[in-house]
Amino acid sequence: MIAKRIIPCLDVKDGKVVKGTNFIELRVVGDPVALAMAYSNEGADEIIFLDISATNEGRQTLIDIVRKTAENVFVPFTVGGGVRTIADVTTLLKAGADKVAMNSAAVQHPELIREASYRFGAQCIVVAIDAKAFPDGSWHVMTHGGKKDAGIHAIEWAKQAEALGAGEILLTSVDQDGVKEGFDLPLTQAIIDAVKIPVIASGGCGKPAHIAEVFKETDVSAALAASIFHDRTHSISEVKSLCQKEGVSIRAVELL
Predict the structure, then answer these.
(1) Distance CA 17, CA 186 (A)
(2) Which residues does 251 contact at the CB level (< 8 Å), separation at least 6?
(3) At what angle do helices 236-245 and 32-42 cross, to 10 degrees?
(4) Which of 24, 26, 67, 129 is least surrounded, with the fewest CB atoms within 10 Å of its CB?
(5) How far apart are CA 71 and CA 48, in angstroms?
(6) Helix, strand, or coil (residue 76)
(7) Where in the cell is it found (predicted)?
């Protein structure tokens, strides 16, 4: 059985890690390089770095921070935010990213997924989908940091992203983000059922039990969390210990 992954997420704005609720009300929680190093040493299976203001500000990801982070972590490292062109993907991979996540630009120019996957391999390309529930029962894709409705159904977009060559989907529930009431299980399973590539669940983790729950109740490949780790209310080892007790296949923590 393939081990499930625990992934701390570093949302970065103005060079600092921040956390908010429903993509707003941001607060500063620390230095991205220091936090990434700590999580790598504590047993994270991967780390995701998202420059959340790059797209809205029309600029590239903060490359210096990416490079310093990559030099100091020893687990797979995914970077996203402000990725608009193949040149951006190339720059991030050269700076040390193992995978590159794309969101708004992929929605606006889907062929970017195909070209990036062809050039670098599907294993390097993560399509981030920020989904929000609508009154008709569907989930819409939101872009620009969860601020704009793209008018696309999330399930259909996930299928298209896979067909274009995405190797993985990072799925975030805009409704659950920062609420700490648990992952959106129906949304998560709906996306998993629609594609064959791995899906990372994001948005809503408030305690270790939520991670165990999403692994037990859906076929998700990985769970992403931020607040519980940033605020030091729970550790990665604590989360993994609970998952093991709940019968979830997980990689044991090997502290450095």
Answers:
(1) 29
(2) 3, 5, 43, 45, 240
(3) 40
(4) 24
(5) 15
(6) coil
(7) Cytoplasm
**pLDDT per residue as tens digits for the range 57-106:** 554 557 888 999 999 999 999 999 889 999 999 999 999 999 999 999 99
User: How many C-beta neighbours within 10 Å does residue 247 have?
Assistant: 10
| Radius of gyration, alpha carbons of the chain | 16
Low-confidence ranges of the chain (pLDDT < 70): 19-26, 53-61, 254-256
Q: State pTM to two decimals.
A: 0.91
> Do residues 72 and 32 touch, judged by C-beta distance below 8 A?
no
For residue 85, with 0-12 CB atoms within 10 Å meaning exposed, 13-18 middle and 19 or more buried, which class applies? middle
Bridge partners of 16, per DSSP, are: 13
**DSSP 8-state code for residue 85:** S
Domains of the chain as residue ranges with CATH:
5-245 (3.20.20.70)
CB 164 within 8 A of CB 114: yes
Own/partner pairs, 183-190, CB within 8 angstroms, 24+ separation: 183/210, 183/213, 183/214, 183/223, 184/133, 185/213, 185/214, 185/217, 185/218, 187/131, 187/133, 187/139, 187/154, 188/214, 188/218, 188/220, 189/217, 189/218, 189/219, 190/139, 190/155
